[in-house]
Amino acid sequence: MARVQNNGSAIGYAVPGVFVGLAALAIVSTVALANRLEITALDPAFCGASLFHTTVEPPETQLTRDYAAIRVLLKDPNGSLDYIRQIYTGTFHVPPAIRAPSPLAKHGNRAQLFKADYQRNAWAGSLQIEAQRIDREHGTTFATDIDRGLQTDDRASVEAAFRGMFVMLLGDLLKSIEQKLDQTAAAGRTLQHARRYYNESLDAYLSINSAAFATRANFALDAMTRAIEGSTAGKSSSRDWFARERTNFMQAISEGIRLSQRAEL
């Protein structure tokens, strides 16, 4: 930013200083938030129906990391809506939590060979772009609802719109898995991302407000995992099994959210 000339006044230096300070505060706050999320993600108090899971922690992506930060900021009455908007639009992406270096890091860039594409390459999208895509493809209004909620400080509406958006994201993702179920390795990895989407966006909400539907959804996810394993073993019934459990899962989360939101009115 160019310095404003004002008869030798320090105002020209103060203006960029304010913005630098705010940017630094945002970065520090968000990094701290990311580290908190790594710990709270394993807090038993929020596990709910997920206690039945036997799989390892699903992988995080930039999308789930950004949304996890937004979710926490929305729950905090003092959480800055400006921070939420910057993360939502992709102006700022939440960095990964700081972890102890892996032994593989001692061997230069060899660790990169073990990373998936989503870990090696920065995500060029944003939650806003995803909301707009879903609105175009499904005739929904999630992007408009989120923008309006952020403008009017209607946090409940923003949360509801994000839940609806993730229902559609999960539906699209599970459909793509079903269509390529014969590619079992890719299907298994993609299902882990679907589980992470569900864990970050809907699991806690349903566990608190519609526990029976949360349990049903988690069992359906586990059954889809077994169906993929059956496909690996060459079982011809695996595709039908996966399709039934996908339908069961989508019904569970859709009905659970609908009943929960009706109770909140």
Give the SSE layout:
Elements: H1 11-40, H2 62-75, H3 81-89, H4 117-120, H5 127-138, H6 142-152, H7 155-179, H8 184-209, H9 211-232, H10 238-264
Overview in brief:
By secondary structure, the protein is an all-alpha fold.
Major sheet characteristics: none
Question: Which parts are unreliable, with pLDDT below 50 for 5 consecutive residues or more?
Answer: 1-55, 103-120
Task: Report the β-strand fraction as a percent range.
Answer: under 5%
Estimate the helix proportion, in percent: 55-70%
Overall mean pLDDT stands at 78
The secondary-structure class comes to mainly alpha
Domain tally: 1
**Shape descriptor:** globular
Question: From the structure provided, what is the oligomeric state, counting identical versus distinct chains?
Answer: single chain
Verbal overview:
- With 265 residues, the chain is mainly α.
- The protein has one domain (11-264).
- It has helices at residues 11-40, 62-75, 81-89, 117-120, 127-138, 142-152, 155-179, 184-209, 211-232, 238-264.
- Helix 2 packs antiparallel against helix 3 and helix 9 (211-232) packs antiparallel against helix 10 (238-264).
- It is globular and about 55 Å long.
- Residues 1-55 and 103-120 have low confidence and may be disordered.
